[in-house]
Specification:
CATH architecture of the largest domain: 3-Layer(aba) Sandwich
Number of domains: 2
Low-confidence stretches: none
CATH topology of the largest domain: Rossmann fold
Strand order of the largest sheet: 2-1-3-5-6-4
Mean pLDDT: 92
CATH superfamily of the largest domain: NAD(P)-binding Rossmann-like Domain
Helix content: 25-40%
Oligomer: single chain
């Protein structure tokens, strides 16, 4: 858990909270008058029971990664998908409205990203996942709660990307450090130049994106998603606009990007 405390100015502190201590930690958030917190696994779902309100999109996802204190209320938000969407639309100038999207994975990242894509008007979202149970649950959620048309394909072997795909997203953890030389098992020759290929892995140039770039596809890395998650949280907690350039520069330096 990461907390933002309003004591003599804002401070962003990394605090480890064990699952059995989450209830006490949330009471501490109120007691110490914190402006809010970020949460990561395993707290994103369990925290829901300690909140006074959950924003509609986060409620659809069934998880929050950000809590904002508004008066005496604790309000849950999810900035995962929002960060992805802002990177996609603002930095890469890609509008998902009316587009056909294929998403690899059906975990938390896939859930938040697909909900935001659906709410932004994506025409069709295809979920590709090795576990049929998780993939079908996410597909049913999208079909029943959002205006998009969703379908599920079980991931068996090297998956071929349909030629009419507009946006391809790796929402799995494949390629995450320390296994940063790994890449999703897809037929990379099925990736074509008109496609927009995105990765949620924060490393700026993953093997997955490199394969897509070699085939002249437009690529969107996960660094922008990470930057905008922080920007959105900063605004929610402080009411101030975040120093975007400084945040992007700091993260680029941390990832050794020129």
């Amino acid at each position: 858990m990461v907390a933002v405390a309003a004591v003599g100015g804002h401070r962003y502190l990394t605090i480890e909270v064990y699952p059995q201590d989450l209830c006490t930690a949330m009471q501490g958030l109120r007691a110490f008058n914190m402006k809010g917190i970020n949460l990561t696994i395993p707290h994103k779902v369990e925290v829901l029971q300690y909140l006074d309100e959950v924003k509609p999109d986060a409620a659809l996802m069934g998880a929050v990664n950000t809590v904002v204190r508004i008066g005496d209320k604790l309000v849950g938000e999810n900035t995962d998908g929002k960060g992805f969407m802002r990177s996609l639309t603002h930095d890469s100038k890609v509008d998902p409205k009316g587009k056909k999207v294929l998403v690899l994975g059906s975990g938390g990242a896939a859930r938040s990203i697909t909900v935001e894509l659906a709410l932004a008007g994506a025409q069709q979202i295809t979920i590709v996942n090795r576990s049929s149970e998780r993939g079908e649950v996410l597909t049913e959620l999208l079909n029943s709660k959002t205006p998009t048309k969703a379908n599920f394909i079980q991931w068996r072997g090297s998956h071929c990307i349909p030629s009419d795909t507009d946006i391809l997203v790796n929402a799995t953890s494949i390629g995450l450090f320390p296994n940063d030389n790994e890449k999703p098992d897809v037929n990379y020759d099925s990736i074509k130049s008109p496609m927009v290929v995105c990765d949620v892995i924060h490393t700026p140039m993953t093997p997955f994106l490199r394969e897509a770039q070699n085939r002249s596809a437009k690529i969107v890395d996960g660094l922008g998603m990470l930057v905008y998650q922080g920007i959105i949280g900063f605004k929610l907690w402080t009411g101030l606009d975040a120093p975007v350039a400084a945040m992007h520069k700091a993260l680029s330096k941390a990832f050794n990007v020129e």
